[in-house]
Amino acid sequence: MAIQYGVLRARPDRYKREDDASTPHLQIRAVDISGQPWRIAVNVQSDGGSQVAFWIVDPLVAHPLLTSLPATAPGFSVVARDAGHALDYVKAPLFTWTEGRSLPPSGSASSDDLQDLLSLYLDQCKAAGGEVYAFGAKFDRNLHKPIDAEFGNLDGLHGIHDIHLNQGNVGQHSDDNGVFHDGGLILKFPDRYLGLFLGFQTQRIPTDAAGNAAAGATPISQLIGGRPPPPPEAAASTIYIERALINPGGPDAGREIVVLANLATSAQTLTNWRLVDKNARVTAINATIGSGQSILLTLDGTGVQLGNQGGNLMLQDSLNAQVDAITYTAADASVENRYIRFRR
Asked: Containing domain of residue 308, as a range?
């Protein structure tokens, strides 16, 4: 699906609840440095009637995206679709899936629904003089909604929506699937960043290279809030990306190293597996890793490269299904001649 994906940088001003709509949103008014008001439309219920899943990451640290945020222009900007500029919940992880929760869109008491929760953080951010970075799709047409006139969005085009996971859809929304165009809210406080990430419980992970639900992918509803674990076919692999030598001394080619490890009690043979970096460069893997052991993959410079400004790596099996994904920052890469162990 062709969308104008990017990020809106502005200051939160006020918001308006939608408690009786068929597909309710929390409508947020944000104002950029020029005084232009924007509308951020955040789904708080799916069009199928299910509750929206959410993940709060406070503080949000150690992600390459954070390096680019201070340089983002005020207002809306189209961003490069990679780990240093765009959101991808699957390929450049921001949180642990099982730590998600859900709330109804509306409630009868204070602080008992998703709109209350989002409003709480927005109020705190505004009081602290902070900013909001809203990732999603810019409005492409004027729908002449009364809320736009109320917010001062007079042309109806100064707005952003799809503030949620935009992959792993099945059925009618599968055309929305893609990579590095997930939505979300990142709030900048004077002392930290806070991430508010949302998804629909019917969406499934993991996803393939195109953002479609992979074979055996698990609905988010089965992952969040203490639900039963995913079925065996979606279980985590015993092979993972353990560490890497990102910044070797001297020329990088032939010196950068990625270390894969095996958690299994038996040897695991990787045939036609591959590593993929943020620029879609590929390094083939054909190797056997012994029980509880690790192997070193030396990068020759013709495939995967470990950029010193931060990035991500994906490990894919012979069917190109994602087995593991990690991110690293420019600070990680600044350490010369030392392996970096990836955070889990």
From this structure: 236-341
251 and 145 belong to one structural domain = no
In total, the chain counts a number of residues equal to 344
186, 212, 233 — which closes off a domain? Answer: 233
What single string gives the DSSP state of each residue in 119-154?
Answer: HHHHHHHHHTT-EEEEEEEE--S----HHHHHHT-T
Query: What are residue 148's phi and psi, to 5 degrees?
Result: -70, -45
Each residue's pLDDT expressed in tens, for the chain with a length of 344 residues: 457 999 999 999 999 999 988 899 999 999 999 999 999 999 999 988 889 999 999 999 999 999 999 999 999 999 999 999 999 999 999 999 999 999 999 987 777 899 999 999 999 999 999 999 999 999 999 999 999 999 999 999 999 999 999 999 998 888 899 999 999 999 999 999 999 999 999 999 999 989 999 888 999 999 997 555 444 443 458 999 999 999 998 888 889 999 999 999 999 999 999 999 988 899 999 999 999 999 999 999 999 999 888 999 999 999 888 899 999 999 999 989 999 998 76
Nearest by Cα to 86 from 101, 67, 113: 67
Say whether both 173 and 317 belong to one domain: no
Global pTM?
0.86
